[in-house]
Structures are given as C-alpha cells and as structure tokens.
C-alpha cells in the first residue's frame, strides 16, 4: 500500500497538518509518524508566524490508529512498535508544547492513535457521524499516544476505564456528553464551523490565546498553587507587552461624546 505522509501548509497564520493516507484510513505507519513529528517541528520553528494549528485528515476517516498491518509484517515487532510509538510520542509532546492553540477537525472514525491526536488538541470539532474507539484491546495492545495519560482528565476515570477496557466505540453525541469533543455538527457544516472557530481564535491576540492554551494544558498536571503562580507571572508579563498595553488603554479610555448613548438608544 502506498504511504502518503502528512501534508503541512501555512496560510495567514494558520498551520494545517493533514493526514493523507485515505486508502489506509489514515493509519499511522513509521513514515507518517516521522512526517508528523517533522511537521510539528517546522511549526515550532515558525512559531512567531503561526497563530493556530489545525489537525485534519483526508478521506472518510480521521485516523484508524497505528498501522496494524505494518506491525504484523515487522520482522522484529517489539523494536518496530517501540520505534513507532517513540516517534509518535515525540510528535505529540511537541504538539502540546506549541505556544498556540490546536484544533482537531474529526470526520469518520478516530481509533487508537487517532484518539491520542484528539486528546492532544485544545478544541475538537466532530461531525455527527464521527466515532471514537480505543481499538487497542482488539489487537492485544495497551494504550499509547498519551491516551492513558489524558483520557481520564477529559472524560473521568470511570468512563476512561469503560472506554479502554471494553474497546466499545462511542458515537459523536456520547463523545460530546463525556467531554471528549468540544462540539458536534453535521458533516455538511463541519468545514464551515471549523472556519468560524479558527477565525475567532485568529482574531484575538496571538500570545494571549497561546498562553491560555498552555495554562489549560498544564492545569491538571500540577498543584493549584503552582498553577496560580504561573497565572500571575504570565498575566503580568502579557500586561507589560505592547499589544496588551494598547488594548488595555483603549478599553480604559473615556468615552468620546459621540460614543455616549443618547436617550432612546437601546442598551
């Protein structure tokens, strides 16, 4: 089967990573994992020029997980799977370290490593026909790609155990109810809604939304006092910057006479 690696494009501050193995359900083989890691690295290098990252996939499925056929065919399965997981984990760790929000746009199924990509994202928009499945138990494997690390925080420990230990798929409505995804819309509206969300984020100050995303990612990983200290240091640093300075001054400026409401104006 022909391997096609993820495609990276950057336009007007929006970096899009698109999984492009539709004939394989966007399953992640080693070349794809390496390309994903390199794409995230390229975005990190261009960070001042990137405002938001969007994860997408070509074809019917978002991501069928790791390439099970490649695993089965590997002469040394242990070494192959260790390398595949290691490269994927480096990519996901770098993705969560990016100083910008990450939005995943999910159509079709997200399985195994695909769930890991979903969990590594800050906002997840799903089509109403999307499904999510652990997939690992069915092929005798345990979770990777940060699924065991991030899923309990997203959906709760009991639901995470049910999802991972039974391998039972959940639909988009259930994923929304559990908190695995941010929003569900029709397949026909998915691209338009993704455009709206991306535009809303891109319209806000880049560093402010980036620091907000960073703080949210760290919130469940450290003590409250540590988070508070980081919040205080971050907001003070942003307040001292030119962009926040101009916005704060504009907000605090006295209203000009023609800006004041007149009798009869609607509040």
What report would you give on this structure?
There is one protein chain. With 267 residues, the protein is of the alpha/beta class. The protein is 50% helix and 14% strand. It has 11 helices and 9 strands. The protein has helices at 30-45, 68-73, 77-97, 113-120, 147-155, 157-166, 172-178, 187-202, 206-218, 224-239, 242-252; strands at 7-11, 14-19, 52-57, 102-106, 109-111, 123-127, 131-133, 170-171, 183-185. Strands 1-2-3-4-6-9 form a 6-stranded mixed sheet, sandwiched between helices. The chain has a 3-stranded mixed sheet with strand order 5-7-8. The longest helix has 21 residues, at 77-97. The chain is globular, with a radius of gyration of 21 Å. The termini are far apart.
Write down the Rg: 21 Å
Helix and strand content put the structural class at alpha/beta
Distance between the termini: 63 Å
Order of helices and strands: EEHEHHEEHEEHHEHEHHHH
Sheet with most strands: 6 strands, mixed
Give the number of helices: 11
* E-strand count: 9
Strand order of the largest sheet: 1-2-3-4-6-9
Any low-confidence stretches, pLDDT <50, length ≥5?
none
| Mean pLDDT, all residues | 93
What's the shape? globular
- How much of the sequence lies in strands comes to 5-15%
What's the helical proportion of residues?
40-55%
């Amino acid at each position: 089967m022909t391997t096609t690696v993820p495609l990276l494009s950057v336009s007007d501050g929006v970096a899009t990573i698109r999984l492009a193995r539709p004939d394989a359900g966007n399953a992640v083989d080693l070349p794809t994992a390496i390309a994903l890691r390199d794409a995230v690295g390229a975005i990190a290098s261009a960070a001042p020029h990137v405002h938001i990252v969007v994860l997408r996939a070509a074809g019917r499925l978002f991501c069928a997980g790791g390439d099970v056929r490649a695993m089965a065919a590997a002469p040394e399965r242990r070494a192959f799977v260790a390398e595949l997981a290691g490269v994927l984990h480096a990519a996901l760790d770098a993705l969560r370290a990016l100083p910008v929000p990450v939005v995943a746009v999910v159509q079709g199924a997200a399985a195994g490593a695909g769930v890991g990509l979903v969990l590594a994202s800050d906002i997840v928009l799903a089509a109403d026909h999307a499904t999510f499945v652990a997939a690992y138990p069915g092929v005798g494997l345990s979770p990777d790609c940060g699924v065991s690390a991030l899923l309990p925080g997203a959906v709760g420990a009991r639901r995470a155990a049910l999802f991972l230990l039974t391998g039972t798929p959940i639909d988009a409505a259930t994923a929304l109810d559990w908190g695995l995804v941010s929003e569900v819309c029709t397949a026909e509206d998915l691209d338009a809604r993704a455009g709206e969300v991306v535009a809303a984020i891109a319209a806000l100050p880049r560093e402010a939304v980036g620091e907000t995303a960073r703080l949210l990612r760290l919130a469940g990983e450290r003590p409250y006092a540590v988070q508070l200290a980081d919040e205080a240091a971050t907001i003070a640093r942003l307040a001292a910057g030119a962009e926040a300075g101009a916005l704060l001054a504009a907000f605090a400026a006295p209203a000009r006479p023609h800006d004041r409401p007149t009798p009869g104006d609607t509040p």
